[in-house]
Amino acid sequence: MENLILLPSLAQRKANGFHRFVEDATVISEETTKAKKVNHFIEANTMEIDLQSLKNDCVVPVFSKDNELTISHNAFIESVWDAAQNFFRGEQIDKPEIRVSHIIKGRIPEAIHKPANQLLESDKTQYFERMMFCFEIPTIYENVEGNKLNLSVGGVRAYNHMNLYSRKTVEKFKVFIGFKNLVCCNLCVSTDGYLSNLEVSNTSDLFCSVLEMFKFYNPAKHIHLMQTLGNAYLTEHQFAEILGKMRLYQCLPPHYQKSVPKLLITDTQINSVAKAYMQDENFGSFGNDLSMWKFYNLLTGANKSSYIDSFLDRAYNATEIATGINAALYGDERYKWFID
User: Is 288 or 1 the better-scoring residue by pLDDT?
Assistant: First the structure.
């Protein structure tokens, strides 16, 4: 843990929490070079959009019974961004990468009776039911098993998790702080860096809740957790057995399934893990033992095919699975079913 890189402003605030896991933190003053992105953190059924397009080209849905506005996607992003700027003052913070899906099309009142083929662009309205964003803080990073990980912050908004046909009520968000693996853009999400059901009624509460999450997140502990995954290995037989148990999981009787730790990865994604084990240039290990770090990245890589609204829950579940099976290799009983 000697390589965790912190700028002075963060190093001073976080020294008390880091010393339990970090022997020596290196303090630097120059900015790091921004890594070139080769792919996206999520891929399935999404398109890229920028903040200005969200502001200028999309309408904001309302609660239908009282016509009260919801918190817009761009207001959500800006609130989290402002919280990061406040908490990580002095650090470099990149612009957010934004992905959207499930477009909802409409038209302005004046064009209600126009045939669809006669609609002008000015007659049309749109918004996206689901949106996810992520931005990096590249001045806070670590190397794990030869992979550079940048501290990253992001969130998910899915209107399908709310009842817009009711009166205005609290609105639901998912937010996280964790690390992005720059080799593959896989996101690493841990317990103290994830709010899976944040309910707020305004952007002020959203801002404060995100600050609280930053306060309780311990990046050094998270890095330490991921580094331990590089110290354990699965044989090819064990890996195949785990994949088989994962395929069996969905078919278990309900009472038996409740006794096994939760598994959110789908059968299609399990197939992707198997294929990546054979072919992935970064984490494939066909014919060799597979480190738990590589196994973890096979899971997070397969998760990139998830829809936006289920992405973060599965990313967090991938962390649970990898660390749980890693503990089972050392005798822990909770995840033992996967490797028995």
Answer: 288
* Residue carrying structure tokens 């066909």: 286
Every domain of the chain and the residues it spans: 5-219, 230-338
Is the separation of the CB atoms in 128 and 103 below 8 Å? Answer: yes
Instruction: Yes or no: say if 289 and 235 are a contact pair by the CB < 8 Å rule.
Output: yes
Yes or no: say if 265 and 252 are a contact pair by the CB < 8 Å rule: no
Backbone phi, psi, residue 125, to 5°: -130, 160
What is the residue-wise DSSP string for 126-142? EEEEEEEEEEEEEEEEE
Confidence class for position 4, pLDDT limits 50, 70, 90: low
CA 67 to centroid of chain Cα atoms: 32
Task: Tell me if 302 sits within 8 A of 188, measured CB to CB.
Answer: no
Q: Which residue has the tokens 């996280």?
A: 176
* Three-class SS state of 102: strand
Both tokens of 135, joined, read 């931005």
Containing H/E element for 275?
helix 267-279
Please report where in the chains the tokens 């939760």 appear, as a residue. 262
